[in-house]
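## Example record

The block below lists the input lines for one assembly entry, exactly as stored, with component labels intact.
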Amino acid sequence: MKDSDFPAAKKIIFRGDLLAVAALGRFVLKTGERIFSTLGAMTLLLGQVSCVTAKGLFLPQQSLGREALIFQMVRVGIRAVPIVILVQMAIGMILPLQMFPKLDEFGQGNEIATINAIAGFRELAPLMTAIVLCGFAGASIAAELGTMVTAEEIEALRASALNPVNFLVVPRLLATVVMMVILTVIADVVLVISGMLTGMKLGVDPHTFYQLTIEAVNVTGFATGIIKAGVFGLLIGLIACFLGLSVKPWEGSEGVGRSTTNTVVYCIIAIIITDAIFTMIFYAHGLFD
Amino acid sequence: MSTELGKEPIIEICQMTKSFGSQRVLDGIDLKVYPGEIMVIMGGSGCGKSTLLRHLIGSLTPDEGSIKLFGREITTMSEKELDDVRKQFGVLFQSGALFNSLNIGENVALLLKEHTDIDESTIEIVVKIKLELVGLRKHADKMPAQVSGGMKKRAGLARAIALDPKILFYDEPSAGLDPVTSAQIDQLIIDLTKKLHVTSVVVTHEMDSAFTIADRMCILDKGRILKTGTRSEFETLRDSWPEDLQSEQDRLIRQFLRGDADGPITERAITSDYEDDLLMISVKSEK
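Predicted structure tokens for the full assembly:
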């Protein structure tokens, strides 16, 4: 190899480096752009929905479509009730069984009620219900709207001067929020009953269990759970409607499949992250003392 | 009814272009449609005719140029103004695009409920009338999933005329239907245009149907309008000998109108680099 070859070789390596950096830069920029534009578009959708809802609540001439809302609530929520009950019964069994032996060592076996109540009302009831609803409501809404896009139904709505946001998104989103709250209340009740039954098997007096639960769950504890539930419902409805409507007409069944899968994945991610943020905020404000 | 000069066009497209990415789908479209006529837009698959229709109904906005409906420019309108215009036209989509969660009667009633103050019982009567026009009065209670493709299209047509529109747009009205049903739909288009005094714009590639219904026709190729004329002009072109036609363009139109397998369109599609393509494979495998 001659010396004169070196600069050229160096140049190539240098260029390769540059290319890699450039590619990485492009990737970061593109991903960033996509995330921000998606979040922006979703915020816009939320704004539109809030506008329509506010108008529907305060202006008499604009109806919210009560029939559609009730239909969606039944579809989204009622069918999920048995699954939510099943899941919360299991959780109400798991928590006491996991904690009891350790607590019993210190003679604090009764405290499983406190743990069941705190973990349940603040965290597990809204969180697990939300995850059930991701599958139940999120996937089905995204698939339905996606299919409507591919079947030209959304375009037909637009061409008929009907706004898909008023007509499809608002009832679905409101239904998800309302049903999420109702289902979480059901989940709370089931959790306590299931915990109590498990406690009885472990030798905890049901009355004591009940007393400890009442002491552990104050109004703030219950309220934080419910607020979370509402926000989770909003996230599920918003993500599902957004991804469903962003299927392109020519993408066909593949697009619908992708949007359905993405809805479940993004919903779960969004819910967990939001939960973490909420918990931090509540903790910082001393709501857990 | 042929071109009525002196009348103001109800639809006027001027120098309209649209690109998707780097691909120019519509390239300098000029078209006028006059009140009361049936204008048929023809063209092969992928020539941009459905895209053109989507611009006319306000689903897409052009990159350049103007589109006027009822003398009003729609390309710069807000969604709200556009909705006012949309209430004055009806669209029959390729698949019918019925709302699947509603039955056929409800599909027709929906627009009346949302856009008018008519009371329930009157709406019911109007729905019956509209369904009778398309021959579906007895099927109002059926869900879209339960009926055939032809019935879906007829139901879609009933929905499109629910608000007594002044313009009707049809996207491939006879695509995917058997010959009899297809002929029935053609007859419906003619009848409705006469009975309701509407202007119709039909996008199709079915020549039989096009020559049955059209007052005037235009042919679209690679995003450009090759020719606009009356039906008889196109009939003359179709029935002439290729030797008599002066321009390549006329021969191309003739092939399309006749549906011949051989002709300029076919020649255009055959590329000359076939041998090179094969050679490249052997060069690659040697490496």
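The two ends of chain A are 74 Å apart (CA to CA). DSSP finds nine helices and no strands in chain A.
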